[in-house]
Each structure stands twice: as structure tokens, then as C-alpha cells.
Amino acid sequence: MTDTDTPVSGRQESTVEDVDDAQTVVTRVVDNVEQVIVGHHNEIEHILTALLGKGHILLEDVPGVGKTMLARAIAQSFEGSFKRVQFTPDLLPSDVTGVNIFNQKTEEFEFRPGPVFANVVLGDEINRAPPKTQSALLEAMEEQQVTVDGESRTLPQPFTVIATQNTVERDRTYELPMAELDRFMKKLHLGYPETDEETEMLDRIVGEHPIEELESVATLEDLQSARETTANVTVERSVREYVTRLSQFTRRHAELGVSPRGGLAVLQAAQGRAVLEGREYVIPDDVQTEAEVVFPHRIRTSTDETTPRAVVENALESVRVE
What we know:
The chain is α/β, with parallel strands linked by helices. Helix content is about 45%, strand content about 15%.
């Protein structure tokens, strides 16, 4: 096997049969979520490719467009544990991670796990909590563990954070630090639905909301297996070099460009995109599709004339695929 044929993970390559099985799981989940969510097919696919790539998702938009409902529908589609954290200004880090409490009967400290100990954690309106509380998620998102009073505890697997934040009332929110933003694989915007989509949504929720009847269509074992398949999707050297050139372009044309973590994130998302498309190898189109939602929130520009999204668009137009 040559270097150009080596999967990015360095492990056994995924077979066509493996990819077919993983694609079936993803398609089943997409169809299930669309029983609740109307008009956001691309965003649903983006969340699923992030899940396959073991990434976390940040949903940013105005209130009332379905961010929380989308996260709930994704979580309920899997037979795993789901916890929701409503971020508020008075929320403490221990309210997220857990705390040691002294048991007077045993005269010992017992650990009470926080809501972060779940397979899918919804951080609702995450930017309403102060930076100290937001930072409680950093270790969990990066290392899949939390440390309380010097003792580290492993989180259940698979583990994914889906966070939401509003784009209004900026004077009542806290900006997410760059270290935290960089740990989100993707930042997605839903936007307002089209007229016919909004009418259909209203038709569905008159009476009992469909989220109340939504059943799981995949097990945690299905998701774990699909993730393993995704990690072993082939990424040729030419594709890896293409991602590096894209990242370097953003660094040259912005005050703060895409980090190496961002380059890895777009490769992992591209592997998920390949599985979604039924391929056991990544092509440049996968990278380009994923870069549009993986790169922008990692970029800071020095002037208002150039936006992070414009930098990414210029990179995709200017950097050649070789």
C-alpha cells in the first residue's frame, strides 16, 4: 500500500459493505428527524456528518427557528442518554460537570454527576452563561472526560455536545472564547423557513407536537460502528495536502486563521460526508462542502470589509486541487 492510499487514521480501511451499513444508519436518522423538522435537510445532514466525525455542533440563530427542537430530534433518534443544560448567568461549572457531596451516613464524599454525563448533551443558549461556566465544557469536548477535585472521570461513549446560541440581545450574553469555538466542529445557521415550509410546520404541530411521538431508529452500537467506519474512510495524501493549503490561505488572509485542529475537523467531517454519499474514500468536493461550515467560526478578520465567510470562499476559489 502506498502513502497516497493510506487512511488518515492509519487503521484498517473501511470496506464498501461497512460504508453501506453506516450510510443506512445515517439515512434512517435523517428521515426520522425530518418527521419533526421541516425545511432544513442540509443542516440535518451537516449535523449527522459531524456526529460521524466525532464532532460537536454549535447552532446559532435568532430565537424561535427550531434550534433546540432540531437538537432534541437528533438525540431522540438514537437509543442513548440525553441531557439538557439551560445556560443562565448564575449557572456554575459544577452544575454542568457534577460535584462531590459529603454523605453523613458513610462519612465519605460521593460524586454526583452533572448533565454532561450523557451521550448527547444539549447546551441551550450557551452564550448566556459566563466564560467560567462555559469553560467547564472544554475538557469534556476535547478529552471526553471531566476532572472534579483532581479526579478525572470518563464520559459515556459516544459523546456529543450540541449547543445553541441566539444572535440577538448581545448586551445580555457572553461571547464564546476562541478556545471554546475551536472545539466545535461546525457552526450552523438555520434561518427562517420558506412560506410553504412554515405552513407545513404549523400543520404538523397543531395538536400534539411530533417530537413527543418520535422514536429512536438507531442504537448506540449503530452509531459507534458508523463512527469507526467513518474514521477509516480513505483520505489520500493529495486531499490532506489540499486541506493544509486551504488552512494556510486563511492564515495569510486573516488576523486569525484556521488552526491545525480546524484542518483535522474538516477532514473528519469530509469522511462523514463520504459515508453519507456512500463512498469509502474522500474527494475534494467533500472537503469544499464541509469547509463552508467548519472554517468560518475559526477565523477572525481585522476589518469589517472582509468577513470570515468571504475568506473561506476566497480560499475555495483560489487554492487549486492538485
